[in-house]
Design goal:
Blueprint: H1 7-19, H2 32-70, H3 76-86, H4 92-101, H5 103-114
């Protein structure tokens, strides 16, 4: 009995994978083995990039809060320690936005923390 190979499914699988290679340069867009490697590497980079994005934004927020806190004579660590003790439930994203775009509101937070 001849071997049964489902060419329809394997072709469809390859076709879907090759759609991801759209826009790649040279053989990466149309040669299966080259494209497969490029796509897999690209997907790995995308996965890792989503994790790095979170780290980068947290770092940016910390820098902005630090700059805002230093204008009021405190370091970042002192400020965040006092924020946590005082029970203010503002996260770093919001605090950074206040420090950068609404300095008066940030000053009010600093004053309430200092009491």
């Amino acid at each position: 009995m001849p071997r049964s190979v489902n060419h329809v499914a394997s072709r469809a699988r390859r076709k879907n994978f090759m759609k991801l290679a759209k826009g790649y340069f040279g053989r990466r867009k149309n040669v299966w083995t080259v494209a497969k490697n490029a796509i897999e590497k690209g997907l790995n980079y995308a996965y890792e990039g989503r994790k790095q994005k979170k780290r980068n934004f947290r770092s940016l927020w910390i820098t902005r809060i630090n700059a805002g806190a230093r204008q009021h004579g405190m370091s970042y660590s002192q400020f965040m320690g006092m924020v946590n003790k005082s029970g203010i439930e503002l996260n770093r994203k919001v605090l950074a936005d206040l420090a950068m775009n609404h300095p008066d509101a940030f000053k009010a937070v600093v004053d309430s923390v200092k009491k």
